Protein backbone atom coordinates (compact mmCIF):
# COMPACT_ATOMS: atom_id res chain seq x y z
CA UNK A 1 0.00 0.00 0.00
CA UNK A 2 1.21 3.49 -0.80
CA UNK A 3 2.09 5.28 2.43
CA UNK A 4 1.29 9.01 2.32
CA UNK A 5 3.08 11.27 4.77
CA UNK A 6 1.27 13.24 7.49
CA UNK A 7 2.32 16.41 5.67
CA UNK A 8 0.69 15.22 2.45
CA UNK A 9 -2.51 14.23 4.27
CA UNK A 10 -2.63 17.65 5.89
CA UNK A 11 -2.17 19.39 2.55
CA UNK A 12 -4.85 17.19 0.99
CA UNK A 13 -7.26 18.32 3.68
CA UNK A 14 -6.25 21.92 2.99
CA UNK A 15 -6.95 21.37 -0.71
CA UNK A 16 -10.42 20.05 0.02
CA UNK A 17 -11.06 22.91 2.46
CA UNK A 18 -10.01 25.57 -0.03
CA UNK A 19 -11.87 24.03 -2.97
CA UNK A 20 -14.64 26.53 -3.44
CA UNK A 21 -17.45 27.01 -5.92
CA UNK A 22 -16.10 30.14 -7.59
CA UNK A 23 -18.47 32.69 -9.07
CA UNK A 24 -16.21 35.75 -9.13
CA UNK A 25 -13.50 35.36 -11.76
CA UNK A 26 -10.75 37.48 -13.18
CA UNK A 27 -10.88 37.62 -16.97
CA UNK A 28 -7.19 36.65 -17.38
CA UNK A 29 -6.79 33.75 -19.83
CA UNK A 30 -5.86 30.32 -18.50
CA UNK A 31 -2.72 28.87 -20.04
CA UNK A 32 -3.61 26.01 -22.38
CA UNK A 33 -0.92 23.69 -21.01
CA UNK A 34 -2.16 24.31 -17.47
CA UNK A 35 -5.75 23.64 -18.49
CA UNK A 36 -4.66 20.42 -20.19
CA UNK A 37 -2.98 19.26 -16.97
CA UNK A 38 -6.19 19.90 -15.07
CA UNK A 39 -8.30 18.05 -17.63
CA UNK A 40 -5.94 15.08 -17.35
CA UNK A 41 -7.60 14.47 -13.97
CA UNK A 42 -10.53 12.94 -15.85
CA UNK A 43 -8.18 10.12 -16.88
CA UNK A 44 -7.71 9.12 -13.23
CA UNK A 45 -11.39 9.20 -12.28
CA UNK A 46 -13.28 6.04 -11.29
CA UNK A 47 -16.14 4.99 -13.53
CA UNK A 48 -18.70 2.21 -13.40
CA UNK A 49 -17.52 -0.74 -15.50
CA UNK A 50 -14.58 1.41 -16.63
CA UNK A 51 -17.07 3.02 -18.99
CA UNK A 52 -15.50 6.51 -18.80
CA UNK A 53 -18.80 8.05 -19.97
CA UNK A 54 -17.75 11.71 -19.63
CA UNK A 55 -17.84 13.88 -22.71
CA UNK A 56 -16.26 17.33 -22.47
CA UNK A 57 -17.36 20.24 -24.64
CA UNK A 58 -15.42 23.51 -24.60
CA UNK A 59 -17.85 26.37 -25.12
CA UNK A 60 -15.74 28.92 -26.96
CA UNK A 61 -17.81 30.76 -29.56
CA UNK A 62 -19.57 34.00 -28.67
CA UNK A 63 -22.82 32.59 -30.05
CA UNK A 64 -22.72 29.44 -27.91
CA UNK A 65 -21.76 31.37 -24.80
CA UNK A 66 -24.57 33.85 -25.39
CA UNK A 67 -27.10 31.02 -25.64
CA UNK A 68 -25.79 29.46 -22.42
CA UNK A 69 -25.90 32.81 -20.61
CA UNK A 70 -29.45 33.53 -21.81
CA UNK A 71 -30.43 30.06 -20.63
CA UNK A 72 -29.03 30.84 -17.17
CA UNK A 73 -30.76 34.23 -16.98
CA UNK A 74 -34.13 32.70 -17.87
CA UNK A 75 -33.72 29.84 -15.38
CA UNK A 76 -32.49 32.21 -12.68
CA UNK A 77 -35.48 34.51 -13.12
CA UNK A 78 -37.77 31.51 -12.74
CA UNK A 79 -35.88 30.39 -9.62
CA UNK A 80 -36.20 33.88 -8.12
CA UNK A 81 -39.96 33.85 -8.62
CA UNK A 82 -40.16 30.52 -6.78
CA UNK A 83 -38.44 31.82 -3.65
CA UNK A 84 -40.52 32.64 -0.60
CA UNK A 85 -41.32 36.32 -0.19
CA UNK A 86 -38.86 36.76 2.67
CA UNK A 87 -36.02 35.21 0.61
CA UNK A 88 -36.51 36.96 -2.74
CA UNK A 89 -34.45 40.06 -1.90
CA UNK A 90 -31.60 37.94 -0.56
CA UNK A 91 -31.72 35.66 -3.58
CA UNK A 92 -31.64 38.59 -6.00
CA UNK A 93 -28.37 39.79 -4.41
CA UNK A 94 -26.58 36.47 -4.91
CA UNK A 95 -24.06 36.07 -7.71
CA UNK A 96 -24.77 32.53 -8.84
CA UNK A 97 -22.79 32.35 -12.07
CA UNK A 98 -19.41 33.45 -13.39
CA UNK A 99 -20.46 32.95 -17.00
CA UNK A 100 -19.90 36.56 -18.01
CA UNK A 101 -16.29 36.65 -16.77
CA UNK A 102 -14.85 33.12 -16.77
CA UNK A 103 -12.36 32.71 -19.65
CA UNK A 104 -12.95 28.96 -19.91
CA UNK A 105 -16.38 27.32 -19.99
CA UNK A 106 -16.91 23.58 -20.15
CA UNK A 107 -20.14 21.65 -20.60
CA UNK A 108 -19.67 18.14 -19.19
CA UNK A 109 -21.98 15.40 -20.42
CA UNK A 110 -22.63 11.74 -19.73
CA UNK A 111 -22.91 9.44 -22.73
CA UNK A 112 -25.89 7.35 -21.63
CA UNK A 113 -25.48 4.92 -24.54
CA UNK A 114 -21.76 4.25 -24.37
CA UNK A 115 -20.79 0.66 -25.09
CA UNK A 116 -17.50 1.03 -23.23
CA UNK A 117 -17.62 -1.08 -20.09
CA UNK A 118 -20.21 -3.41 -21.67
CA UNK A 119 -22.87 -2.21 -19.22
CA UNK A 120 -21.07 -3.62 -16.18
CA UNK A 121 -22.54 -2.14 -13.00
CA UNK A 122 -25.04 0.02 -14.86
CA UNK A 123 -27.76 -2.48 -15.77
CA UNK A 124 -29.70 -2.12 -12.52
CA UNK A 125 -28.48 1.42 -11.75
CA UNK A 126 -27.87 3.27 -15.04
CA UNK A 127 -27.50 6.49 -13.06
CA UNK A 128 -24.09 5.18 -12.00
CA UNK A 129 -22.73 6.50 -15.30
CA UNK A 130 -23.72 10.04 -14.30
CA UNK A 131 -22.28 9.52 -10.82
CA UNK A 132 -19.04 8.52 -12.54
CA UNK A 133 -19.03 11.83 -14.39
CA UNK A 134 -19.57 13.69 -11.12
CA UNK A 135 -16.57 11.85 -9.63
CA UNK A 136 -14.46 12.90 -12.61
CA UNK A 137 -15.57 16.53 -12.25
CA UNK A 138 -14.58 16.44 -8.59
CA UNK A 139 -11.05 15.28 -9.43
CA UNK A 140 -10.78 17.98 -12.09
CA UNK A 141 -11.98 20.55 -9.55
CA UNK A 142 -9.34 19.54 -7.00
CA UNK A 143 -6.58 19.48 -9.62
CA UNK A 144 -7.58 22.93 -10.85
CA UNK A 145 -7.55 24.30 -7.31
CA UNK A 146 -4.09 22.82 -6.75
CA UNK A 147 -2.96 24.73 -9.86
CA UNK A 148 -4.45 27.99 -8.55
CA UNK A 149 -7.44 27.86 -10.89
CA UNK A 150 -11.03 28.20 -9.71
CA UNK A 151 -14.09 26.28 -10.86
CA UNK A 152 -17.75 27.24 -10.59
CA UNK A 153 -20.56 24.77 -11.26
CA UNK A 154 -23.62 26.46 -12.78
CA UNK A 155 -26.71 24.43 -11.91
CA UNK A 156 -29.39 27.01 -12.67
CA UNK A 157 -29.98 25.98 -16.26
CA UNK A 158 -32.56 24.31 -18.46
CA UNK A 159 -30.41 21.31 -19.39
CA UNK A 160 -32.64 20.09 -22.24
CA UNK A 161 -32.74 23.53 -23.84
CA UNK A 162 -28.97 23.91 -23.52
CA UNK A 163 -28.46 20.57 -25.26
CA UNK A 164 -30.71 21.71 -28.09
CA UNK A 165 -28.97 25.07 -28.36
CA UNK A 166 -25.53 23.44 -28.51
CA UNK A 167 -26.75 20.69 -30.89
CA UNK A 168 -25.66 17.89 -28.58
CA UNK A 169 -25.93 14.18 -29.38
CA UNK A 170 -29.30 12.99 -27.94
CA UNK A 171 -27.47 10.21 -26.08
CA UNK A 172 -25.54 12.80 -24.06
CA UNK A 173 -27.06 14.22 -20.88
CA UNK A 174 -25.76 17.39 -19.27
CA UNK A 175 -24.15 16.79 -15.88
CA UNK A 176 -22.32 20.04 -15.24
CA UNK A 177 -21.69 23.45 -16.81
CA UNK A 178 -18.36 24.64 -15.43
CA UNK A 179 -16.86 28.10 -15.38
CA UNK A 180 -13.06 27.97 -15.08
CA UNK A 181 -10.57 30.74 -14.42
CA UNK A 182 -8.58 32.57 -11.80
CA UNK A 183 -10.70 33.59 -8.80
CA UNK A 184 -10.83 37.21 -7.67
CA UNK A 185 -10.04 36.05 -4.13
CA UNK A 186 -9.50 32.89 -2.09
CA UNK A 187 -12.11 31.94 0.49
CA UNK A 188 -12.06 29.01 2.89
CA UNK A 189 -15.81 29.34 3.59
CA UNK A 190 -18.54 28.96 0.96
CA UNK A 191 -19.84 32.31 -0.29
CA UNK A 192 -23.42 31.33 0.53
CA UNK A 193 -22.32 30.79 4.13
CA UNK A 194 -20.53 34.13 4.20
CA UNK A 195 -23.67 35.87 2.96
CA UNK A 196 -25.91 34.12 5.48
CA UNK A 197 -27.94 32.18 2.91
CA UNK A 198 -27.25 28.84 4.60
CA UNK A 199 -24.79 27.36 7.08
CA UNK A 200 -22.83 24.15 6.96
CA UNK A 201 -24.09 21.36 9.20
CA UNK A 202 -22.13 21.05 12.44
CA UNK A 203 -22.08 17.27 12.23
CA UNK A 204 -22.48 14.59 9.59
CA UNK A 205 -25.91 13.07 9.20
CA UNK A 206 -24.96 9.43 9.77
CA UNK A 207 -27.47 6.68 10.55
CA UNK A 208 -27.17 2.98 11.35
CA UNK A 209 -29.38 0.01 10.48
Tell me what the structure shows.
With 209 residues, the protein is of the alpha+beta class. It has a single domain, classed as NADH Oxidase (3-Layer(aba) Sandwich), CATH 3.40.109. The protein has helices at 6-18, 32-39, 62-82, 85-93, 128-146, 159-165, 191-194, and strands spanning 54-58, 104-111, 150-154, 172-181. The radius of gyration is 18 Å and the shape is globular. The two termini are 31 Å apart.
- Molecular shape: globular
- Output the CATH homologous superfamily: NADH Oxidase
How many structurally independent domains?
Answer: 1
Number of helices: 7
The biggest beta sheet is recorded as: 4 strands, antiparallel
Please state the average pLDDT score: 96
**Helix-strand topology string:** HHEHHEHEHEH
Strand share of the residues?
Answer: 5-15%
Structural class: alpha+beta
Radius of gyration: 18 Å
Poorly predicted runs? none
In CATH, the topology is named: NADH Oxidase
Amino acid sequence: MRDFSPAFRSELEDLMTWRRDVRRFRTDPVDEALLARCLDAFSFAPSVGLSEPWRILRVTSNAARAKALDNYKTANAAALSQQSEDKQDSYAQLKLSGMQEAPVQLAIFCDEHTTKGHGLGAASMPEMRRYSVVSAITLFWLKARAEGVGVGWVSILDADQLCRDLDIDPAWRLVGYLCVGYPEADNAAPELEQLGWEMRAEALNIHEV
